[in-house]
Amino acid sequence: MATEGVDFAAVRPRRLLEWSEEEGRCVLLRPRLRSTRVARWVARFGGDPHYRIRLDDVGSLVWQACDGQTSLAQIAQRMRDQFGDRVEPVDERLAQFIRSLLKGRMIALEPVEGAPAP
Length: 118
Fold this sequence. Notes:
Elements: E1 11-15, E2 18-22, E3 25-31, H1 36-44, E4 50-54, H2 57-65, H3 72-83, H4 90-103, E5 107-111
Antiparallel strand pairs: 1-5, 2-3, 3-4
Helix pairs in contact: 2-3
C-alpha cells in the first residue's frame, strides 16, 4: 500500500518485526533467513540470525507507536509534540519513513474502524 493519497487518520501501522531497545532507541531485528529452523542452526554456530537496524530518536518514536492502535495522524502529532520544528514537514517525513517500512515488510497498515473508505 502506497502512502500517497492516504488519509493519515484512516490507517494505523502495525509492527511485523521483533525489536529491542538499546540506550532509549529501537533496534529492529530483521531475520537474515526466512526459515526459523535454518536461523536456529546458524545461531548455534555463533552467527546472529538477525540484521540489526538501529533507529534514531525520531524513528524510535514512530516505531514504538506502530502498535496497531495508533493512527498515522496521531503519530504525526506525537512527532510534532516531541521534536517540534526539527521534524517539519512532519507529514512528508512520516510518509517517507512509513513507505520504507512498508517496502521492507516491517509494518502493515490497517484501516481504522469507522473511518471512511478511501
